[in-house]
Design goal:
CATH architecture of the largest domain: Up-down Bundle
Largest sheet: none
Number of strands: 0
Shape: globular
Helix content: over 70%
CATH superfamily of the largest domain: MFS general substrate transporter like domains
Strand content: under 5%
Structural class: mainly alpha
Number of domains: 2
CATH topology of the largest domain: Growth Hormone, Chain: A
Oligomer: single chain
Radius of gyration: 21 Å
CATH class of the largest domain: Mainly Alpha
Number of helices: 17
């Protein structure tokens, strides 16, 4: 048996910096939207493209990025992606027009798609079984931390106006991070050699990117453009496009080719069930975060800094429970996912009760108990949800599996934000009052409850059918993640 790489724990914070940066840059633009509107003279449509361009290119490239890591090496792809992401971030910070920033954000998303799948792939392939739960718990912390830091740190950076850079600092902050992470990654990340001659499926990569674009572009731009006819046509075309991509992948597999998607992954019912639960869970999490943010800034008129700081306790308890979750998962298995969902549901019920009792007089402080419960529930569930997808994945499949998982998470996040965001704004009307914002948040909270209840119900798919299967699954979960 090959001994574990002695550099693995020093490697972990280096690769997790990529996950943190990718999530930070996805969320921080929402906080910076007013500054971009005034400082760069960006229209509402341009702002949607600045946010949506990154989301599209990131989501459409994740599976290809994961597959390239399987073929050419996780270390090599991570270094290429991190280098490109750092350069793209600088280009974002130097942009002189909305068009230049949109182009730089597209590049930033594609380079993030090259580096992010390698993070889980490296954790899966480098860490021995009994250490993997702890490593993946830190991965959960990086994801939650990046999302919340987009609110908190983004508000702090904009409020401080470092060196008079204004909104540019939210992108240029990635330069020192990249300059530190790149040499450390080159020294600490282990090499990887593909078992077969590297080949890529360009037709599959193009087809999958087109499928994601057909579905994601109208979801991101639809609300701002008042849901034009082409958006509905694009959404309808996404399903046959996906069917065509899957047909091509199946044909290539039967011919002994090298498909983009490793279809053997989908023979594991736990992999499939885990993906579905991740879809509903991420749609819930991102949409409720959006609803609270809009309420704090629009309804309570908090500044971006004060709004971001309101999310601080949620981010803290998310981090703590993500780290602690490995112990509970090792003992109780997939039941931890159900327990975490129940705690999150309790948080939503508390929020609804607070909104009903306090009404238009509610304060940000009164929302804290509900937000803390939501943070605890998400922290408990998230690492085990990753484990549900990756349990049983072979080392040479790690990049592809990570790419599929991250694509599903990214797409469902965008879909949740698009649908529930549209319902939120439609509730407000043209001249919203605080009462309208309360009603909108109640609606989003209720629909978020439906999503998390659905995720809770779907956890039954993870239950073993036999005692033998139960033992095997417990071992696989311990081997994969917490």
């Amino acid at each position: 048996m090959t001994p574990p790489d002695p550099r693995r724990w020093r490697m972990l914070p280096v690769v997790l910096s990529a996950t943190f940066m990718a999530l930070f840059d996805f969320n921080v633009v929402n906080v910076a939207a007013p500054s971009l509107s005034t400082g760069l003279h960006a229209s509402d449509a341009a702002l949607e493209l600045i946010v949506g361009g990154y989301a599209f290119s990131y989501a459409s490239g994740l599976v290809t990025g994961g597959r390239l890591g399987d073929l050419f090496g996780y270390r090599r792809l991570f270094l290429i992606g991190m280098t490109g992401f750092t350069i793209a971030s600088v280009l974002c910070g130097l942009a002189q027009s909305p068009g230049q920033l949109v182009a730089a954000r597209l590049l930033q998303g594609f380079t993030a798609a090259a580096m992010v799948p390698q993070v889980l792939a490296l954790i899966t392939s480098v860490f021995p079984a009994k250490e993997r739960p702890r490593a993946v718990s830190w991965f959960g912390v990086a994801i939650g931390g990046g999302a919340v830091a987009g609110q908190v740190l983004g508000g702090l950076l904009l409020d401080a106006d470092l060196f008079g850079l204004g909104w540019r600092v939210i992108f240029l902050i990635n330069l020192p991070v990249g300059l530190v992470a790149l040499p450390l990654a080159a020294r600490l990340l282990p090499g990887h050699r593909a078992e077969a001659r590297p080949r890529l499926d360009p037709l599959g990569a193009l087809g999958l990117a087109a499928t994601v674009a057909l579905a994601l572009v109208p979801l991101v731009l639809g609300r701002t453009l008042h849901w034009p006819a082409w958006g509905w046509i694009s959404l309808a075309a996404a399903l046959p496009a996906l069917a065509a991509v899957l047909w091509w992948q199946l044909r290539l597999t039967r011919r002994g080719g090298h498909p983009l998607l490793d279809l053997s992954l989908f023979r594991n019912r736990y992999f499939n069930a885990g993906l579905v639960i991740n879809m509903t869970f991420m749609a819930f999490f991102t949409s409720i975060m959006l609803g609270i943010t809009l309420f704090l800034q629009g309804g309570l008129h908090l500044s971006p800094l004060d709004s971001g700081l309101t999310f601080g306790p949620l981010g803290l308890v998310f981090a703590v429970t993500s780290i602690a979750a490995q112990r509970f998962t090792a003992r109780f298995g997939y039941k931890v996912i159900t327990a975490g969902c129940v705690v999150a549901i309790a948080g939503l019920l508390v929020m609804l009760a607070e909104l009903q009792i306090s009404g238009t007089h509610i304060t940000a402080l009164e929302l804290q108990p509900a937000m803390i419960l939501i943070g605890i529930g998400n922290g408990l569930s998230f690492p085990a949800l990753i484990g549900a997808v990756l349990a049983g994945v072979q080392g040479h499949q790690a990049g592809g599996a990570a790419g599929v998982l991250t694509t599903v998470q990214q797409f469902s996040s965008a879909a949740g934000v698009a649908v529930l965001g549209t319902l939120f704004f439609s509730t407000l009307g043209s001249r919203p009052s605080i009462a309208d914002f309360v009603s909108a948040l109640e609606l989003v909270t209720g629909l978020g409850g439906v999503l998390i209840l659905t995720a809770t119900g779907l956890t039954v798919l993870l239950r073993p059918r036999t005692a033998t299967e139960s033992v095997r699954n417990s071992v696989e979960l311990a081997d994969a993640v917490a």
